[in-house]
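Reply to thread "Modeling small-molecule complexes from scratch"

Following up on the discussion above, here's a worked example others can learn from. I took a protein sequence and the SMILES for 2-acetamido-2-deoxy-beta-D-glucopyranose and predicted the complex. Inputs first:
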Amino acid sequence: MFCFLKMNQHTACLALFCLIMMVAVQANDETNVQYKDCGHNEIKSLYLSGCNVHQKSCILHRHNKNQLRLGFVANENTGKTIKTRFICNLAGLEVGWPGIDGTDACQGHGLSCPLTKGQSYNYNLDFSLGDDVPLVNVTATVRLEDEQGGKLACARMHISLQA
Ligand SMILES: *[C@@H]1O[C@H](CO)[C@@H](O)[C@H](O)[C@H]1NC(C)=O
């Protein structure tokens, strides 16, 4: 049946097929994390290196460069600063990730602040763990906060810190 199509129809079909494949592949690698939305479903996609949708925990190694990509929709018009919160819960003890927690998400993370309510944004964070990180399993919360401490996006996931 396909062989009897005229050349231009054939090409169009092929192009459509490719487009569908591309969309499918892209949708697949946007979110690779089993996470809990601890905000109000602002998050549209979450990618973190070392994660796999089929695994409960993400595995982060000490010397790897890790990447986090967070796609979300702004739930308000923000000011010019947004705070990154990166908090690990180690058996009930909350620890802010040194060098990440409390830093300005508007500087060098792909966001152009102020954000506009209803618009989609991508927040990028590249980080490495360093030598002195304890090799434990933690629950990590990544949160973007406005100037009043209100949540713009919040994700919680399990991370296994390994050598
Ligand atoms: C930490 O998480 C890893 C990966 O999920 C698992 O294999 C390991 O048993 C866990 N260790 C502890 C002490 O819970």
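What I'd highlight from this example: Residues 57, 137, 160 surround 2-acetamido-2-deoxy-beta-D-glucopyranose (CB under 6 Å). The chain is about 15% helix and 40% strand. Questions welcome below.
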